[in-house]
Design goal:
Length: 416
């Protein structure tokens, strides 16, 4: 009996030595281990989805110079009509302005509560505005409300100057961000869309930046507000209430509508980037250069109707859902859950959801340390048995390297 324990002890010491030598190996191995397999949970909707190639020949006869329809979740374009033609976007430009401000908030550069002093340049803007005076202060959130609800040109310039230091520097940021997003038909020369030479974009590019803006959930608070009031003017002279009424009538006309931005100039015609959500499916429709304001509402609604009637959203996993638990070599704790980092949804044509299955896999030979949020696997999606997409799965929590003594105790426990 004593002899057996001595042998076990020596064996443990040997294994610890081998373990110490291998401590420097990579965290992930090359192989994969299937952990779970499941079929899709379908969320019914009067919704859209399709491969761009399948829709190239589709003609809905939209009464607009250019138009697109896309799925906000995947970014797939479901309909295109003169989608890459370079056209003046009027106030739809403000989508990019709002996006850059929200991204500055997200990275902690500014906050919604920051107070912005209105410059002479901002106060001098014409067109739609909040009629702010030079020297008055407004919070970033109030300025964003002005942009989103009343299409305020003065609010755009004020935010641009606050984020970038100068309006021109902000415009450079707009064009840089457009390139980063893959917007190839765009050139901005101002922050608000007032008529200007060489200021243009396309329906396709508007779809891209609109989708990016909608990733910031806070904007829906403003995009869906029909009417509100804000205080404007210098405090020393006495501030007055200024009413903001949403320029986007779509939120009143269309069930589920939740954005995004209107635009109009004589050159640009009547424009609209509209969005709506039904049963977990969000669609974005863009129409440019419509002849009448009625056309822009009607044609946007026709695009959305087509989408919601043709597609549905299939939910593969919810944000934070555990899709597997695996051992972590030399880790403390010794196991980690693989989770979906966000809601994972698939756009499918109605009636095709039954053809979809999915499998969660975890990279094999998982080794500590691992940080929470590190990718440790994938969710693979199949249609009729053929792989069509992959989504990352991440570690639910961090896993540290176990100490030599902890490894020793685990091995001893296993042997005994």
């Amino acid at each position: 009996m004593i002899r057996n324990k001595i042998i076990a002890f020596l064996l443990v010491l040997t294994l610890i030595s081998i373990s110490a030598v291998s401590m420097s190996q990579d965290v992930f191995g090359q192989g994969e281990v299937v952990v779970t397999e499941s079929s899709l949970e379908v969320v019914e909707t009067e919704a859209p989805v399709e491969d761009n190639n399948e829709n190239k020949g589709l003609d809905l006869g939209i009464l607009a110079r250019a138009a697109v329809l896309l799925d906000a979740n995947s970014g797939k374009f479901l309909y295109e009509q003169n989608s890459h033609e370079q056209l003046p976007p009027a106030s739809i430009t403000k989508i990019m302005t709002m996006l850059l401000v929200m991204e500055a908030v997200e990275r902690g550069q500014i906050s919604l509560e920051d107070e912005v002093t209105i410059s002479q340049r901002a106060a001098s803007m014409g067109g739609s505005q909040m009629y702010m005076e030079q020297g008055e202060t407004q919070t970033v959130e109030t300025l964003l409300k002005g942009m989103a609800i009343a299409s305020a040109n003065d609010a755009c310039v004020a935010c641009a100057e606050y984020v970038a230091g100068t309006e021109q520097m902000f415009i450079e940021m707009m064009n840089k961000r457009a390139k980063e997003l893959g917007m190839k038909d765009t050139n901005f020369v101002n922050t608000n869309g007032l008529p200007a030479e060489n200021h243009y974009t396309s329906a396709y590019d508007i779809g891209i930046m609109a989708r990016e803006l909608l990733k910031h959930e806070k904007v829906f608070d403003w995009l869906t507000t029909w009417q509100t009031t804000v205080l404007v003017g210098l405090e020393s002279k006495g501030q007055t209430e200024f009413g903001l009424t949403n320029t986007n009538r779509l939120i009143k006309l269309y069930p589920g509508a939740n954005g995004i931005k209107t635009g109009f100039t004589q050159e640009a015609g009547y424009c609209l980037a509209g969005s709506a959500t039904r049963n977990d499916l969000t669609l974005i429709a863009v129409v440019l250069n419509c002849e009448t304001t009625h056309d822009r509402w009607n044609e946007t609604m026709r695009l959305l109707d087509y989408g919601f009637a043709t597609y549905e959203s299939a939910k593969l996993a919810e944000k934070g859902e555990i899709l597997g638990t695996v051992d972590v070599e030399k880790g403390t704790p010794s196991t980690v859950n693989s989770i979906a980092p966000e809601d994972i949804k698939l756009l499918v044509k109605k009636g095709e959801a039954g053809q979809i299955t999915s499998s969660a896999i975890i990279f094999d030979r998982l080794k500590a340390p691992i940080n929470a949020g590190d990718q440790i696997g994938e969710l693979i999606v199949y249609k009729d048995g053929a792989e069509i997409d992959r989504y990352p799965l991440v570690a639910e929590q961090s896993v540290d390297k176990a100490g030599i003594f902890e490894i020793y105790l685990r091995m001893l426990k296993t042997l005994i």
